[in-house]
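Batch manifest, entry 17 of 40.
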Amino acid sequence: MKNSISQINKAYEICRKETQKWAKTFYLGTLLLPLEKRKAIWAIYVWCRRTDEIMDSLEASTKSKDELSDNLNQWEENTKNIFKGNIKSELDAVLVDTIEKYPQTIQPYLDMIEGQRMDLYKFRYKNFSELKLYCYRVAGTVGLMTQNVMGIDKAYTSAPWSNKPDPSEAAIALGIANQLTNILRDVGEDRQRGRIYLPQEDIEKFNYSEKELLNGEINNQWRRLMNFQLTRARDWFQKSEDGIKWLSADARWPVWTSLRLYRGILDSIERLDYDVFNNRAFVKNSVKAFELPISFLISRIR
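Output type: structure tokens
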């Protein structure tokens, strides 16, 4: 299947609209990138969303585990074909176009599909080590997918080696931080699907119970448990910060903006007194407007 430049541009526009619709905070950050980079990020985002919908769409909720497993297998095969340049749709074509402009390996994409497979059979997480693996697969991989799009500043190659963080580790850390934030925001929704992502070890540590969580009970034990989880998420955001300063100059502002806005969801959870059972935490537009210039100033500091 061959696509004209016009068709490719139309497909990129589809990706832009999808990103704007489903990832408002993330989308705002992408608008601060140069056009070619933002288009690449939209294409990668839409591939990730297509992957996620195999497990979490309304249609997926009506399918058996065997059907979902087959769909993931077919999607994995389709992704392998995309990396070989064999495409079936315009959305496949924009990812091929992105990969050609910003070369990368297929492994993060396969790892993300494996993360979706975890949702087929794993509904509880014994400890943070197990949860960390899940967070890497479904979100840390996004950092690896996008790091070549963002690019590394030339100063990175000339800086003393001892002072340089691994860009890949920083990218993964940001993805894990974002996913931990998603988990804390979506506790109420996930329990309705029979999933509890908070580590069982932590729940027991704070004398809370699975029964209380499923019932949406908010007490002092729950508040202490959530405070602990928020601190962990903020630690992962902190781990990613050292790597951002080595990104290319045109990527630092949007990445800082996305980080600070997404981390702001944690502040919102606190303001809700940790009631994520009856409320959805989000960052207000006024806060977003306030964060833009702050993120810009921070991005200028090495």
